Give the backbone structure.
Amino acid sequence: MNDEYSKRIEVQDLTETPPIEEPARQYFFMAKARQYVQQEQKRLGRPLTAAGITFGCQMNAKDSEKLIGILEQIGFEMIEDESADLVFYNTCTVRDNANQRVYGRLGLIHSMKKKNPHKKVALCGCMMQEPSVIEKIQKSYRFVDLIFGTHNIYKFAELLVTMYSSDSMIIDIWKDTDKIVEDLPAKRKYPFKSGVNIMYGCNNFCSYCIVPYVRGRERSRNPKDIIKEIEQLVSEGVVEVMLLGQNVNSYGKNLDEPMTFAELLKEVEKIEGLERIRFMTSHPKDLSDDLIAVMKHSKKICRHLHLPLQSGSTRILEVMNRRYTKEQYLALAHKIRAEIPDISLTTDIIVGFPGETAQDVDETIAVVKDVAYDNAFTFIYSKRTGTPAAAMPNPTSDEEIKKNFDRLLKVVQETAKSRVGRLTGEVHSALVEELNEQDASLVSGRLSNNTIVHFPGDASLIGKIVNVKLLEAHGFYYIGEISEKSS
Ligand code: SAH
Ligand code: SF4
Ligand code: F3S
């Protein structure tokens, strides 16, 4: 596929005016940027390097793969560290600590840039959709060369051409978009698995959350484009896909020919050669019986569901605008467990939402015990400017919040430990993902239910699905050995 993109770039006639339609226009600018990179390489007598630093969720990881795909087509050599000639930061703003990490990195890169004035720094992603952030960068980080947002990443080549022909900071941020540009390059981090966007944006406006403001309104990709992309990935050796959306359960509502997420999954299941299907994230309020039925009967959909709870207190859930009660969530979790007994459930929980008391947290803990999550990501509430919750008074002290958080975390860890160990002694299939970081005689694989297993093996197994006997459970992972027997 990358060769095809490359050919498309080679045939561009740069004496013409750039085309108006997309993605043709971007291929013109990739050719133009390629010309610039080649000239620079000749001048410097070495390759031009680039590095991408990614914060945040899988959406951002996927966006970075697209940005790196464009950079590679332009002729940059990708490296891991920020000494590169061009560095982009793909930012996240879901909690304030994500923002602080970016400012920290910018401080460091400023001193590197002083030593190398040709170095270029680009900022993109969710944080850039906040006007207050742009103001701060314009004031305190004048050395940044290019800023763009979440809606126009497909324009990266064009933006780079503008940046290289200008001395001042280039800023291009769109408030929202209804456009989805297909057929652009992407560089996959793993040869055997890949994220696939099925929708962009979010319409839920949970009262604490900034994502709808920085990612815009919900837009579903055309099922034909999704299937075509996955077929292409499979032809390149991908065996596992992760379908990505902030709320995959509302997929397809705004398509010309509406389609449900359950229907989309049935289509993806048919793709020959594809072995595993995952998806993120499911909003409990939209999870249909059809989806449970499709999962139950599927041979490819993994036995894992991430079902964010956020709080176990109906009172708090209401102020969070989650649109389900504790009882509704529990009923749903029990229904899923009854229909698909071997499924593992994971969740997200926020502690310290405005007005949350120790009693509310007790209720959350009770839900954690009742559902028995395989894992839960727990976050301390972070006030996001512009969200409704930011205006809500919070009488609970930081110490109390920390105490509540620690209480919850303890229960989460205990529950997870006892849940994860339940498969000890059984044989399960695992997709081998990498060599073990600590011990190179081991490889690390992922079970269908998302648990990690480490077992003896070598690099030739990476990307393969093998049967593994789960010998010992250690907290969140297993130690195992390859087994001839199937599960
Ligand atoms: N669309 C996904 C979540 C994306 S954000 C969903 O609805 O499940 C990932 C997680 O970050 C959320 O589930 C929530 O638990 C957490 N989060 C979002 N906003 C937050 C905030 N202001 N403070 C703390 N945690 C937050
Ligand atoms: Fe945020 Fe809620 Fe949308 Fe998830 S569903 S991204 S938590 S607003
Ligand atoms: Fe962060 Fe944006 Fe994802 S705010 S969590 S990177 S959608």
